[in-house]
Amino acid sequence: MTTSRAAFCALPLAQQAGVLFTEGTLLASRWEGSRAVGLYQVGDFYCELCYDTTTYALLWTRPLQHSEGFAEGDGDAAG
Q1: Of 7, 24, 52, 59, which cross-links 20 as Cys (Cβ 3.0–4.6 Å)?
Q2: CA 10, CA 73: separation in Å to the nearest integer?
Q3: Could you tell me the keywords of this UniProt record (predicted)?
């Protein structure tokens, strides 16, 4: 059973990271200075996880709800 977005948001940061690592799929990553930000998909929601590579600390998560058009690309291909 996949963790719901509401249940995920109720967890402390360390447990949120555990859910992302065990239930999530890493879709993309980017760098913000010394911080690595990963985008994960967990069930029906997405979440960013920010990790400081200098201090080895988890900094924050940002759950994102799937919205209409998010996964559909750039629009009408017939244009």
Answers
A1: 24
A2: 31
A3: Plasmid
